[in-house]
Design brief:
Blueprint: E1 3-7, H1 12-23, E2 27-32, H2 35-43, E3 47-50, H3 56-65, E4 73-76, H4 91-118, E5 122-126, H5 142-162, E6 168-173, H6 190-202, E7 211-214
Parallel strand pairs: 1-2, 1-4, 2-3, 4-5, 5-6, 6-7
Helix pairs in contact: 1-6, 4-5
The chain binds NADP nicotinamide-adenine-dinucleotide phosphate.
NADP nicotinamide-adenine-dinucleotide phosphate binds near residues 13, 173, 174, 180 and 186.
């Protein structure tokens, strides 16, 4: 039975990823911030561990739990949009968005990628098209855009380090998805986004290591 690791599975895209892998017969290791959320994931049949991606000691605790695991597919999903205005960012907003979207990846990928490489598996981060510099035509959400551009850089480095060890690493845009973050006016339902994300990641080959992709498999410029 293959194992999927979903980092940030309490709700939205992460929760649906966990649900779909479980339905397909995978063993699912899922993380969430609170004990109540972990209890709900465990009750659904997953192995659940607490994780606040913005706290170093929480990441260290997860690393201990994952010590003997071999992971076929891992998704780093947890993310924060931050302020809905584009004025001068407060230090608190900057730190919250950058710690959640960037620093967490810098700490988590070195823990998770070797476990994925052992299985010659797949490692994906949920980025955003808003982080693309090459495809950018608007500036709204400037702090979030900067954080996802930086996340893409972290993913690219992981692909260079862990691709030769067997891991296929990719960054994904999930579409504009109807979740708490995407809002009710978004383009697609979470089930459609996640079905596309899973299918696209599953068909990647070593030649795709280090790509930035839309959920439907279309390449996005960095
Ligand atoms: N929805 C879209 O249209 C869209 C588009 C492009 C990219 N994305 C990206 O997709 C990912 C998932 O977003 P979503 O749409 O599912 O949003 P969401 O419904 O707002 O869910 C955000 C998820 O991130 C988790 N999270 C935030 N900070 C965390 C932390 N410090 N530690 C652990 N978990 C944390 C949340 O956990 P809690 O429940 O504990 O808060 C929740 O599970 C994000 O990275 C987002 O940037 C979304």
């Amino acid at each position: 039975m293959p194992t999927a690791l979903i980092l940030g599975a309490s709700r939205g895209i992460g929760r649906e990823l966990a649900r779909q892998y479980l339905t397909d017969g995978w063993r699912v290791i899922a993380t969430a911030r609170t004990q109540e959320q972990c209890d709900a994931l465990a009750a659904a049949g997953m192995v659940a561990y607490p994780l606040d991606v913005a706290r170093a000691e929480s990441i260290a605790g997860l690393g201990w739990h994952l010590d003997d695991e071999k992971i076929d597919t891992a998704w780093l999903v947890a993310g924060l949009y931050g302020p809905r205005h584009d004025g001068f960012p407060s230090e608190a907003d900057f730190d919250a968005v950058m710690h959640t979207n960037v620093l967490a990846a810098m700490r988590l990928l070195p823990i998770v990628a070797p476990l994925v490489a052992q299985r010659r598996g797949r490692l994906a981060v949920i980025s955003s098209r808003m982080g693309s510099i090459g495809a950018r035509t608007a500036s709204i959400g400037t702090l979030y855009r900067a954080s996802k551009a930086a996340l893409n850089s972290v993913l690219k480095d992981a692909s260079i380090d862990f691709g030769p060890q067997g891991a296929i690493c990719a960054a994904f845009h999930p579409g504009w998805v109807k979740t708490d973050m995407g809002g009710g006016e978004a383009d697609i339902e979470v089930e459609e986004s996640v079905a596309g994300l899973r299918a696209t990641l599953a068909r990647l080959t070593a030649a795709d290591n280090g790509s930035f992709l839309n959920y439907d498999g279309t390449l996005i410029p960095w």
